[in-house]
Design a protein that fits this description.
about 550 residues, alpha+beta, about 35% helix, about 15% strand, disordered N terminus
Length: about 550
Amino acid sequence: MTENQFKKSLPIEDQPGYDADKDPNLLRRIKYYQGESLGADFDRAIALEDEELKKLGRDPANILQRNRGVAPLVPKRATTKQMVELKGKLDKYKDVHFPKEEKPFKDKKKVEVEPVQLNFDFNKKDAVTELTKEFGQQFSISKSVREQHTDTTTIHTSKLPDGVVFAENEIDVKKTVEICQKYKCPIIPFGVGSSLEGHVNALYGGISIDLNNMNKILHVSPEDGYAVVQPGVTREQLNVYLRDTGLFFPIDPGANASLGGMASTNASGTNAVRYGTMKDNVISLKCVMPNGEIVKTSNRAKKSSAGYDLTRLIVGSEGTLGIITEITIKLYGIPEVIAGGRVTFPSIKDATEAVIMVIQAGIPVARIELLDQEQVKACNNYSKLNLPEEPLLLLEFHGSESSVKEQSEFFSEIVADFGGNNFESTSNNEERNKLWKARHDAYYETKSCKPDHEYIATDVCVPISKLSECIEKTQNDLTKYDLFGHIVGHVGDGNFHVQLMVDPKNDIEINNLNKFLDDLSKRAILLDGTCTGEHGIGQGKKQYLVAVSYTHLTLPTKRIV
């Protein structure tokens, strides 16, 4: 810019119709002033503008109040609204040469994926004969047993395996894999069957390996903070075993799932915002590979720079790379104090923006869950609560008495700036459980609204900054497709679930359901998110997995899933 142009420029806030809350450049610049990089192009634009000002004999620190000048003006624990109020102290000009905010994938070629159906031609008869000979009563081809080893929690038709092996140890798994490999027979590992996307359906036939009898806790090291368990050990079983040690395993997907299944699907749940997912908490694995070889992915050191990270590769692979037979997982000290709280908001947008600020402020919230207004209505009806029927945040703080108190107070200060009302917090265990009742009963609350319909659950995950947009469009889609559904979410990490009730006999409703699920997954991907945050791929989302993996690349339009 020239000196003359500079002098003639007016501050943006003086322009007719200016709205600071809708000015993307202002919000981006404020973030930059706080020391946050927003990309090389943006940073370069700021630097070039500084140089222009210096050539004019002006000091950017004094004129534009960049990070060197703004920092002292920002109050401790400043909120976004407080930051916006600083606009008068920031020089904003109409000819700012900043790059426009990128909208992910808008101009990129849409990837159309047509998964190729695989046809397995295997010798079923000889495989069943050899497995019967090898395992005797540990192998079953009974229809009732096979029906118990398929998935009926999705809209997909259940597909039964041709037989079930009840593995007692690692050698049983190895022998089963070797026999199935010999006859080119598909294998489906089975835990407790709590998956939601058809993971255990035998799409092409084959053999199910039931790992529930491999349920021993092999070793616990309180000093090192880890436990070694077999894949059939459940989350609740482990925590009951650990209660006298002062340690616990925090990953809670809701269901009492097996730890082998949780590792295979990279499970997370309500505590993920503080403790992470299974990928963050699995130290080492033992697996039987497709050729029958037994592999240990690493030793039990909590970190390593020695080559490939095979552990994190296998976690989340859903049994496609190998069958887990032993897991070493991290343990945590049971917090001195656990406090629960809840607060309501005028809108989903207000709730999510409050959460963004809470996370940016560094408050170590253990859980932070969102329920939309329709879910809250269902809570009141089913659980006999008296909650304001507005978007609701449920949260939990872990730590010492003093730290939990400080976290709670800081949280209340922030949410108040975003319209948060009726904030309640308690460390009393009975009262805390009552606070969380609305979230724990979400399935039953939704089911009770239409008891003659079938329950369908799905999930996506997007960057937190896109969460309110994604939820609002999803709510609009529920209306558009005339579907009944509630939204709950792990808002601290951008993951939310849609709980739907559908009539399986209504072809129009099922068709609309499929369109809704397709739109939801594609929307999440276009917002730089993923088609599933914790439910996994399974049978239901194979095509979206390919889309997530290759959206940024030039690809053939047909790929084998």
